[in-house]
Design a protein that fits this description.
Oligomer: single chain
CATH architecture of the largest domain: Alpha-Beta Barrel
Strand order of the largest sheet: 6-7-8-9-10-11-12-13
Strand content: 15-25%
CATH superfamily of the largest domain: Metal-dependent hydrolases
Order of helices and strands: EEEEEEHHEHEHEHEHEHEHHEHHHEHEEE
Structural class: alpha/beta
Helix content: 25-40%
Radius of gyration: 21 Å
Shape: globular
Number of helices: 13
CATH topology of the largest domain: TIM Barrel
Number of strands: 17
Length: 431
């Protein structure tokens, strides 16, 4: 037998024995063959392969690795303007900082985030990556380099993101098309940065048309405001209808959607039903939205968080993500999806065992479904063996307890061990 932390020479067959798992009654053995889960069976029910590396977990929790479906690596760790500011101030500050971007700078900041993400147990990221005439394809190319460098443990999907608009920023659309011709990219969008609601809807149409043309996913930053008084921030229903018109069901995600929280429940219900019918996923980004929303409220300050429980009730696929880390949009963040899940639970009135299990799924299997990954299958035979072992024996309280990640597996191979305090590949750990 071999203990956690001594897995650098593990065989092609690994068996995690006597494990607890969220949503599974009793302890289990998880048999890994190559890069996939071969079998999940009651503990001790089946003899392991003769050549297997046995990892006895003594009841510790195993769960699918985390997925960040909405993370900005290129503008992480940029700091904040003096005194902070609202959404407009964050966009303006970032636009100015982008003028000084270099490949080395973007790479160095992104690597710091990736190191933290690995230690947290994240092995898949959709990186929202800015494209415009200021930065060109610089950040896209850096993300492609990082995807190749870290492909042994990281599935990095690149969203081509026009933060400053398409119609509002001449020259952006040709750059987007150039980027979308590259492998590993999907189309992003940001309609609220256009001049008016007409242009914002046209932005949505252009993004979804590009998704059809390039046969890929679409992911829009959407409705990031305190209410729908400005119609540029009232596009969720429009996105749902446009998605169905193009046959893009289950291939479109929208992030933020804070205006859902301001709607009357009956109106919100109608929009959520439209999203569910269209298979449009919602990625809730609580750290950013709590920071940016309600800034003009002198009393009864609005939280500005899309109501997760309502999304669940209406059958909308719902995920959580970190969004930004330590920049003008989000001055905080540790690249830890469990931290985000707990924050969402606190502001969303989570209380029951099922609430916290669903929040856990929102950063694992539900997040994987948003990015179109087979990891959405979870702990099932044939699913990718991207797993995290926690220093906990209670799978119901992983979100609440925020336990140490003892071991991270990617594609069936050990890539990080907290016991060794090192990774098994070339990723710089944060100091």
């Amino acid at each position: 037998m071999i203990r956690i932390g001594d897995l650098a020479a593990a065989s092609e067959h690994i068996v995690l024995t006597d494990a607890a798992a969220p949503g599974i009654s009793g302890r289990v053995d998880i048999r890994i063959a190559g890069s996939v889960i071969a079998d999940v069976s009651p503990a001790g029910a089946a003899a392991p392969p003769a050549d297997a590396t046995i990892v006895p977990l003594d009841g510790r929790v195993v769960a699918p690795a985390f997925v960040e479906p909405h993370l900005h690596l290129d503008k992480a760790l940029l700091g904040t303007p003096l005194g902070g500011g609202d959404l407009g101030a964050a966009i303006a500050y970032t636009a100015e900082r982008k003028r000084g971007f270099t490949s080395a700078d973007v790479r160095a900041r992104a690597e710091r985030v990736l190191a933290a993400a690995l230690r947290a147990g994240t092995t898949a990221i959709r990186a929202q990556t800015e494209v415009d005439p200021t930065v060109g394809l610089l950040s896209i190319q850096v993300m492609r380099e990082l995807a190749e460098r870290h492909r042994s443990w990281l599935d990095l999907q690149i969203a081509v993101f026009p933060q400053e608009g398409i119609r509002a920023r001449a020259g952006t659309l040709p750059l987007m098309r150039e980027a979308l011709a590259l492998p590993g990219t999907i189309v992003g969008g940001c309609p609220y940065t256009e001049a008016d609601a007409v242009d914002a809807r046209a932005h949505v149409d252009q993004v979804l048309d590009l998704a059809v043309e390039f046969g890929t996913f679409a992911d829009l930053h959407l409705d990031l405001a305190d209410d729908t008084s400005d119609q540029r921030f009232a596009l969720a229903g429009y996105v749902a209808r446009a998605t169905r018109e193009r046959g893009l069901e289950d291939r479109v995600a929208i992030g933020h959607v804070t205006t859902l929280a301001a709607m009357h429940p009956s109106e919100r219900g109608r929009v959520l039903d439209e999203l569910a019918r269209a298979g449009v996923s919602v990625v809730v980004l609580p750290a950013t939205d709590l920071y940016l929303m309600g800034r003009s409220d002198a009393a009864n300050v609005r939280r500005g968080i899309a109501p997760v429980s309502d999304l669940w009730a209406h059958g909308v696929r719902t995920a959580l993500s970190s969004n930004n880390l330590r920049n003008a949009f989000t001055p905080t963040g540790r690249a830890d999806p469990l931290d985000i899940a707990l924050l969402a639970g606190r502001v969303g009135f989570a209380s029951s065992r099922e609430d916290f299990l669903r929040l856990h799924r929102a950063v694992t299997t539900d997040a994987a479904a948003v990015v179109g990954s087979e990891r959405a299958r979870g702990l099932a035979a044939g699913a990718p063996a991207d797993l995290v072992v926690f220093d906990s024996t209670d799978p119901d309280t992983v979100v609440l307890d925020q336990p140490t990640r003892l071991l991270v597996l990617a594609g069936g191979r050990p890539v990080y061990s907290a016991r060794l305090e090192e990774s098994f590949h070339e990723v710089p750990l944060p100091g």
